[in-house]
C-alpha cells in the first residue's frame, strides 16, 4: 500500500509531460533576409456562468501559435519564412475565462533559387 501511495503521484506527474514541439520549419539552404517581422494571435479558455478558475471551453486556443507565425510572415511583403524567432506569451483574466496571446518575432526571409 505504501508503494502505491508513493507511485501514484509520480505516475500522475509523468502523464503531464510532452516532447519538444518545433514552431518554425527548417529554413531553405539559400535565402535572403527581408527584415524584422512580428505577428500575434489570441485564444481563450471560457467557462460560461462559472468562475474563472474552472475554464474549460477552448476558443481558437490550439491554433494561436500557427496563426501568430503566419501573421509574422504576412507582416513582411514577399516573406516565406522566419529565422531567429522569439516566442512570447501573455495572458489575462476576463469575466468568463482567460485570454492567451502569443507574439512571435523574427527575421523574415524568402527563398532564393540558385
Summarize, please.
By secondary structure, this protein is an alpha+beta fold. The chain has two helices and four strands; from the N terminus they run αββαββ. The chain has a four-stranded antiparallel sheet.
Walkthrough of the structure:
The chain is flat. The chain has a single domain (20-111), classed as Translation Initiation Factor IF3 (2-Layer Sandwich), CATH 3.30.110. It is an alpha+beta fold and 114 residues long. The longest helix has 13 residues, at 2-14. It is built from 2 helices and 4 strands, in the order αββαββ. The protein has a 4-stranded antiparallel beta sheet with strand order 2-1-4-3. Strand 3 and strand 4 (97-111) form a beta hairpin.
Strand percentage lies at: 35-45%
Q: What's the quaternary structure here?
A: single chain
Return the structural class: alpha+beta
Indicate the low-confidence ranges by residue numbers.
none
Count every beta strand, where a strand is a DSSP E run of 2 or more residues: 4
**Major sheet description:** 4 strands, antiparallel
Radius of gyration: 20 Å
Briefly note the CATH topology name.
Answer: Translation Initiation Factor IF3
Q: Quote the distance from N terminus to C terminus.
A: 67 Å
| Strand order in the sheet with the most strands | 2-1-4-3
Question: How many domains is the backbone divided into?
Answer: 1
Total of helices: 2
Output the CATH class name.
Answer: Alpha Beta
Name the helix and strand elements from N-terminus to C-terminus, one letter apiece.
HEEHEE
The chain-level mean pLDDT equals 83
What is the CATH architecture term?
2-Layer Sandwich
Provide the helix percentage: 10-25%
Shape: flat
Amino acid at each position: 500500500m505504501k508503494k502505491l501511495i508513493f507511485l501514484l503521484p509520480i505516475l500522475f506527474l509523468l502523464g503531464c509531460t510532452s516532447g519538444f514541439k518545433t514552431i518554425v520549419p527548417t529554413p531553405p539552404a539559400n535565402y535572403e533576409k527581408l527584415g524584422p517581422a512580428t505577428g500575434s494571435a489570441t485564444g481563450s479558455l471560457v467557462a460560461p456562468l462559472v468562475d474563472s478558475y474552472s475554464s474549460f471551453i477552448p476558443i481558437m486556443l490550439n491554433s494561436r501559435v500557427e496563426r501568430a507565425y503566419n501573421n509574422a510572415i504576412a507582416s513582411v511583403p514577399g516573406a516565406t519564412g522566419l529565422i531567429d524567432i522569439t516566442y512570447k506569451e501573455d495572458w489575462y483574466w476576463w469575466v468568463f475565462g482567460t485570454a492567451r496571446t502569443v507574439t512571435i518575432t523574427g527575421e523574415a526571409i524568402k527563398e532564393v533559387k540558385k
